[in-house]
Amino acid sequence: MTDDDDDRAGHFDWVTDKMFEDGLEHLVEEDGVTVLMDIPGVHEIVRKHHNNDVLEHIKEKHPELWLKSQWDTFVEKWKDKLLKPQIELDDWFVLELDNDEMVIYPASLFTEQGVFDLHQDAIKQEDIERVTQQYGARLSAPGYLDCTQWDLFETEEDAMNSLMEEFDDE
After folding, report:
1. How many domains does one find in the chain?
2. Are 111 and 40 within one domain?
3. 85 and 159 in one domain?
């Protein structure tokens, strides 16, 4: 602090905190945010303070990138496990068995007659519903018969979210 600063400080004893804040607000509005952010250290402080809010804003602005990131992390967790996440866009044969169990078969691998033949003791052929162009999601062991039941979704995003919600803790 120089002697001039000491003299100036003494001459402004009458300035209240409210008056100073009003003056500072006026300068900030006049100079704009860009000038403030150029003050050494300010950018880092503001960035650190608003980090989570900025990331949340980016997530909301780019939901497809956020979902892909979440999906990639989810798939990575499963890479050393027997079962792997699987999502397929296909037509499907859907039927409800007598025990209220829902069974779903991809039309690219099964015919309607083939599905009926598998379950003819429990259903009538007209009980088989064909669902077109939906995303099936399940966990499956490539090269083995082990898998979870298919669930159907209208969008790939819904299929991804369902698998992540249901199996992320395993």
Report:
1. 2
2. no
3. yes
Backbone angles phi, psi at 85, to 5 degrees: -60, 140
Average pLDDT, the chain: 89
Of the listed ranges 3-7, 30-34, 149-153, the one predicted with least confidence: 3-7
d(CA 98, CA 118): 14
* Residue matched to tokens 């980016």: 58
CA distances from 36 to 26, 30, 52, 84, 160 (A): 13, 11, 21, 51, 43
Whose CA is closest to 101, among 149, 69, 54? 149
Residue 144: inside a domain: yes
Q: What is the pLDDT of residue 154?
A: 97
Q: Distance between CA 69 and CA 42 in Å, rounded?
A: 31
Q: Same domain for 105 and 158?
A: yes
Structure tokens at 104: 């779903």
Q: Is residue 60 part of a domain?
A: no
> Amino acid letter at 162?
S
Residues 103/150, Cβ–Cβ less than 8 Å: no
How much of the chain is in helix, strand and coil states, percent to nearest 5? 50, 20, 30
Boundaries of domain holding 8: 3-49
C-alpha to C-alpha distance for 139 and 162, rounded to whole angstroms: 11
pLDDT at 66: 93
